[in-house]
Amino acid sequence: MTPTYRPIIIAMSMTLACFAGCSxxxxxxxxxxPLVGSWQIDDPRLVDADIRIIWTFDGSSIAVSxxxxxxxxxxxxxxxxxxxxxxxxxxxxxxxxxxxxGIYAVARDKLELSFSVDGSPRPKSFEDGESMVLKRVxx
Length: 139
What we know:
Order of helices and strands: HEEEEEEEE
Structural class: mainly beta
CATH topology: Lipocalin
Shape: globular
Number of strands: 8
Radius of gyration: 14 Å
Largest sheet: 8 strands, antiparallel, barrel
Number of domains: 1
CATH architecture: Beta Barrel
């Protein structure tokens, strides 16, 4: 990938990952466990051999960093596993203040995300909205 795409990749990763402020649902079917761990962008549209973007989910927050550990964004998230596709709700607060409803699927070591921007409704499929694929690098 040419160097001119590097700022676009970093900006898209930061935009996709700048989440915060979502409250945890009191429903018993909500568990953050499927996403817990570190995930690396593994999407041909977003991968640059010189840039390694890592999303690290813990029980309530997401940190997005480069391969050297420099954090670009740190925020929180909520999920709902009772619906299919599973829902994730994100509130960007690092670079904007915007709710981004989305969907996700975890299959072994692959995480697929799709979400809306600019106040659009939650995507109904992974072909809708902004999407990306990540692979698990650690549990």
